[in-house]
Amino acid sequence: MVDTKVDFKTHRTSPLDGAVWPVGPITLSEKKFLGKINIRGNADDAAFLAAAKKALGVALPLAANTVSMRKGKKAVTVFWLGPDEWLVHSADGSQISLLKALQTAFKGLHTAVTDVSDYFVVIELHGSTVHDLLARGCPLDLHPRTFKPGDCAQSYFAKASILLHRVDDDHYTIQVRWTFAQYLWDYLVQSADMMAA
Amino acid sequence: MLLIQCPFCGERDLTEFSHGGEAHITRPANPDKISDEEWGDYIFFRTNPKGIQYERWIHSHGCRRWFNAVRDTVSDEFLGFYKSGEQPPKIKRRKVLRK
Ligand SMILES: [Zn+2]
Fold this sequence. Notes:
The complex is a heterodimer of chains A (197) and B (99). Chain A is of the alpha+beta class and 197 residues long. Helices cover 22% and strands 31% of the residues of chain A. In chain B, the strands form 2 sheets. Chain B has a 4-stranded antiparallel sheet, with no helix packed on it. Chain B starts with a strand and ends in a 16-residue tail after the last strand. In chain B, 17% of the residues are buried. Chains A and B meet through strand 8 of A and strand 2 of B. The structure holds zinc ion (ZN). Zinc ion binds next to loops of chain B.
C-alpha cells in the first residue's frame, strides 16, 4: 500500500518567508510556527488556577500585562491578555499535546481552550535602540519604569494590533495577526531606515 | 496626548480606546408592552449633557474589555473610571468656569 500520509511541516509557509532585514544596530527575525493557545477561565476559581498550573507547569500570571515563563524542554510563555484571558506560546508542534492536557485538566470547569497557532506571527527584535524603533509606531510608554523585562502589553504599531513582550532590556517580541505580518515588517524596515538616516 | 485609565491595564493613550456612548441605559423590562415612542427613546435618544457625562469605553487595542468613565463634555477632562457593574463614583457638580 502507498503511504498517503502528508508531512504538512515541509509544506508550511509563513507570510514572512523571504522577508529581508537591513544590516544595522537592530536585528529582526521571525520565530516561526510557535504553538499558540488561548485560555479563558475564571481567575477567582482556585480549581481553575490549579488545573492550569498543572497542565502548563507554571502558574497563570494574574497581574495585568505580565508574563510567566517555564524554561527547559517543555518551555512555555504565558501572557496575561485580560482578567479572564491568557495566551500560551510553546514550541512548534507541542501545542497539540498541550491543548489536550489543558482540556483534560479543565474537565468540569467553565473554560475555553483554543488553538490559535495559525492566527498569529511572532517577530523577535534585538538591539539597544529597539525601544526607539517601537516608539515610531506604538503609543506605549516603553521606559523601564513602566515597561520592564517580563512585562507584556497589547497595543498597536501603526495600523496593526500587536502583543508586545519585553523579554529583556534590549530584547522584545511582537505578536501580530498573520495578515498584518508583512505590513508590520515593512513598516519596521522603513522606520529603521529613517532612524539610520 | 489624552490618557485614559483602563481599570485593568492602567494609563494608556486615548488612541487605544473606542467610545461606546452614554452608560447606564437600561433595556426596557417588558418590550412587548411598551409603545413605539418608548422603544425609540431607548434606542435613539441620549441625554447629551453639557458637562458631566457617564459613558462607556472599550480598550479595543488593549485588553478588549468594556468599562465606564466620567467625562466633562466641555473640557474633555476625565473625572473617574470604573468597571462595568460597579457603582459610578459620586462626582460633585463643579463650579462652571465657562460661560
Ligand atoms: Zn485594558
